[in-house]
Amino acid sequence: MRLIDLTVHIPASSSGRSRALTQEPAPARWKTIEFRIYAVFIFIIVLIMGWIPITLSSSTHPNYMTFRPRLSRGWMFGRAVDNSDAQYRTFRNNFPTLVMAAGSFLIAKFIRTRLHRTGTAARDNMYLLRFNFGAAVVMLLALHGTSVLKIAPILTINYLISKRFGASKFGPICSWIFNVVILFLNDWHSGYKFENVASSFAFLDEYEGIYPRWHISFNITMLRLVSFSMDYYWACNAPSASENVVGLSEKQRQTLAHPEAIYSYLNYISYVLYPPLYLAGPIMTFNDYIWQHRKPLDITRRAVLSYAFRFLFAMLTMEFILHFMYVVAMKDTKAWAGDTPAEIGMIGFWNLIIVWLKLMNLWRFFRLWALAAGIDAPENMIRCMANNYSALGFWRSWHRSYNIWLIRYIYIPAGGQNNVVVNTFLVFTFVALWHDLTFTLLLWGWLVSLFVGPELAARFVLPESKYGNKPWYRHACAVGAVFNILMMMAANLVGFVLGQDGMKFFVAQLFFTAEGLRFLVGASVCLFAAAHLMFEYREDEKRNGIMRRC
């Protein structure tokens, strides 16, 4: 096993990409004295970074009683567990139920496949679209109960808008307006109540299923509604792909249109409510979903088992962290009184790691479910959160399926690279408001947009094609990477961890105390060394014909 095999494979990282590189990968540096020093240094620093939150989580620490009420009984080594993150707690507590739901779906699909008898030589799985439709209806009733009466009209209206306008530009425009308005109304009315329509309907509010908050997961559903509308609009304006096409790439499956008849209501509902991906994604385009039924992929049992092992390893890693580092509870209770800037920094850093791990575990579970059912959804998390030095690369590897969606349905239609700054601002404003209609997330989106600017400027002033072979270029890039990483951490700490008030306190400790300045200098040195290891890891990928662009 190679070191680079630790990073999950994606179809786009093919050897063909590497041939288009303007610069040949440099000779391996892993065994040089410089990189051995970097490796030993970072190994020691990582141990310290792990030890700090473990020490802060000790029952003998002065702040322990502040966050102790937020801890729960654990199962590892007699320790308590920090199960206080609401999103991950929902997933973790309901994991056995989710496994049973996935198992039931896969067994039912297996039976349906066995019963299927095709009279044609061509092999396709289009018959499964009707099965997925039925499974989606059953799932929706179980999850949301009477709220199906709210969801069905929204889905139907969006479908009718798309079909009514067809090849007209008013189709995607009206669909976008409709879906954005619905997002705001869902949030404003908290999913609506039947009693607000008429008191005689109040009894319906008592049967809202096992997951009443349907409007929370609707944010994901909304992306699929827009995908269908725009894919259908483009299909009406372009010839469909030949029935004889074979070996389609991931990108081709996303962009090549189908015959207009394929964009039916049954296929639409089958896609929008596809059970394995309904709750959390990853996000697929309508075209990709249908292509994988028209031209099924060869997903081997070994590939599924290998991915299942990755998922289980990540789950156990998360469990270990939650049992030994109570940083989420510390963050929620602001239990950092008397802590040093380094300790506060590690509370923030490990909270970001937990955000990364919890989302990765969510997405990988549902992607594994889809993979076992024969559907290869885009991989969302390509790299470890700590293995990123570029804001652009980070976004490509974090929630990758969402990034694909944003590029296809917002960035390119808005002009793409013809106006990078404005389009980047537009994209991240949408991303922030789509996540949550709060100023904190909006501020996060604007900060990310702002921080992309210096990186774009640096790439323009010091292009790799011109200076890549200079001995100083790698070190200059590492200095830039330090600033990039610090800015990305600042934006994400504001948006997802400390908030505005917590970040103000941390910044005050960091820049206006001698200890804080020492920590900042030390952290910058560590990031400089880490950046070189990240560069070399990517060079190693290039040497093996892999180009991930992140």
UniProtKB/TrEMBL annotation:
InterPro entries noted in UniProt: MB_O-acyltransferase, MBOAT_fam
Keywords from the named record: Membrane, Transmembrane, Transmembrane helix
Membrane topology, as annotated: Multi-pass membrane protein
Protein name: MBOAT, membrane-bound O-acyltransferase family-domain-containing protein
Family assignment from sequence similarity: Belongs to the membrane-bound acyltransferase family.
GO cellular component, one term: endoplasmic reticulum
Keyword Transmembrane recorded: yes
Molecular function terms, GO-annotated: O-acyltransferase activity
Organism: Mycena alexandri
